[in-house]
Amino acid sequence: MSCTNETSISVTPLDPGQAAVCEAIGRALPAWFGIEEGLQELRHAAETQPGFTVVEGGTTVGFITCIRHFPETWEITWLAVHPDHHRRGLGRRLVEAVVDRCREAGASTLLVKTLADSHPSPAYARTRAFYRAMGFTRLQVFPDLWGPDNPCLLMAKVIT
């Protein structure tokens, strides 16, 4: 599916009833979401956490979820855009929607966890580059948070 009409794209609040669609998007991205337990966590997050979807031509093609740890600190928990829609700015729109929500709520910091640089995944190298382009900086690596084969990188973006 091609995204040729900029006006046909919208970012809307995530509805818990969209969890199955969010799960399907995750399943279309096995390089990122290839672990069944993670896919179940993704679906649960889509059912229970606030977030946004990006819709193109009436079809949901991406989503983002987040949690509020403290009034000043929120975290992106899941972000996925269907692979047919990558490199079109849709992930950027989703992150910007969360940043706006955080700003409106008075938060000063947005966190995200991703796979650390020490892991050889080319997919996650793209993820880290995306977050850096969005203004996130690396804070700390937790080598065993997700197990020794999946070192966790904590990144943060200051909300102004």
Provide a concise account of the structure shown.
By secondary structure, this protein is an alpha+beta fold.
Structure commentary:
Helix content is 33%, strand content 32%. It is of the alpha+beta class. The chain has one domain (9-158): Aminopeptidase, CATH 3.40.630. Strands 1-2-3-4-5-7-6 form a 7-stranded mixed sheet, with helices on both faces. Helix 1 (19-27) runs antiparallel to helix 3 (36-48). The N and C termini lie far apart (36 Å).
Rg computed from alpha carbons, rounded to a whole number of angstroms:
15 Å
**How many helices in DSSP terms?**
5
Order of helices and strands: EHHHEEEHEHEE
| Strand composition percent | 25-35%
Number of domains: 1
Q: What general outline do the C-alpha atoms trace?
A: globular
Name of the CATH first level: Alpha Beta
Level of helix content? 25-40%
CATH architecture group name: 3-Layer(aba) Sandwich
Biggest sheet overview? 7 strands, mixed
The pLDDT mean sits at 91
Distance between the termini: 36 Å
Low-confidence segments? 1-5
Briefly note the structural class of the backbone: alpha+beta
- Would you tell me which CATH topology applies? Aminopeptidase
CATH superfamily caption: Gcn5-related N-acetyltransferase (GNAT)
Number of DSSP strand runs: 7
For the biggest β-sheet, the strand order reads 1-2-3-4-5-7-6
Blueprint of the fold:
Layout (H helix, E strand, L loop, with lengths): L8 E5 L5 H9 L2 H4 L2 H13 L2 E6 L2 E12 L2 E9 L8 H15 L4 E7 L6 H12 L3 E6 L9 E7 L2
Parallel strand pairs: 4-5
Antiparallel strand pairs: 1-2, 2-3, 3-4, 5-7, 6-7
Helix pairs in contact: 1-3
